[in-house]
Write a structure and sequence with these properties.
44% of the residues lie in helices and 16% in strands. With 245 residues, it is an alpha/beta fold. α1 runs parallel beside α2 and α3 packs parallel to α4. The radius of gyration is 17 Å and the shape is globular.
């Protein structure tokens, strides 16, 4: 029996660690072709090996900073050139700097906006025309519960994550009738290297009751393997030990 994503191509941003890393492995197990982009080439090379062992049909890597327009353009083009189509885009790259507003600098603001919003726009911008032409595709934004509720000392981070949710909702209305599914995944805290040194510590994350990245990867896989007539619009996640907010 064929795997659920055999013949499908998925582009994942921020694939060198955390949610992106485990999402790549989850999609690999279902036989997808993968296009992976992140800044750390050595990590992408390691992930390529693991993804092929898991069952990925083929893996293409595009090392680079997702905030750069050329990286987004090249990544989408590479998917189409190598595999003939781009079926799934997972806008996963992101970062957080946790500070009260008075201590949040303009540089902090710019870094979060460019990493969380600019990249989401750029990759979607270059993927959408191709998906419209084909009349199909899935676009997922990896937002956060910080895109659903506001949290103290995270005002700018929350603003960028709310923006991703709004972007997904608007694109769903824009693209659904063209055969394209658009959704957003909103996990609570996840045990990854995210925000280590900019609001979190290794010890704090290890001792926390946060989600495992594999949990979020399975939610991503679910959204990528829906039947043709259905779509996941928004999926919120918390551990059994956490309250909603």
């Amino acid at each position: 029996m064929a795997n659920k994503l055999t013949g499908k191509t998925a582009l994942i941003t921020g694939a060198s660690a955390g949610i992106g890393w485990y999402a790549a492995l989850a999609l690999a197990e279902e036989g997808a072709n993968l296009v992976l982009t992140a800044r750390r080439k050595d990590r992408l090379d390691e992930l390529t090996k693991l993804a092929k062992e898991k069952g990925a049909a083929s893996v293409t890597t595009i090392p680079g900073d997702a905030r750069e327009e050329q990286v987004a353009k090249d990544s989408v083009a590479a998917a189409i050139k190598a595999y003939g189509a781009l079926d799934i885009l997972i806008n996963n790259v992101g970062m957080g700097i946790y500070k009260n507003l008075a201590d949040t600098s303009l540089a902090d603001y710019t870094t979060m906006v460019d990493t969380n919003i600019r990249t989401t726009f750029l990759f979607s911008h270059y993927a959408v025309p191709h998906m419209i032409e084909r009349g199909s595709g899935t676009i997922l934004m990896i937002s956060s519960m910080a895109g659903v509720y506001g949290f103290a000392n995270e005002a700018v981070y929350c603003a960028t994550k709310f923006a991703q949710v709004g972007f997904a909702q608007a694109l769903d209305r824009e693209l659904r009738t063209k055969g394209i599914k658009v959704g957003v995944i909103c996990p609570g805290g996840v045990k990854t290297e995210f925000a280590i040194g900019t609001g979190r510590t290794v010890e704090g994350v290890a001792a926390s009751d946060m989600l495992e990245p594999e949990d979020v990867a399975q939610a991503i896989l679910l959204a990528c393997t829906q039947s043709p007539g259905s779509r996941i619009i928004e999926l919120q996640m918390r551990t059994m030990g956490e309250s909603l907010a």
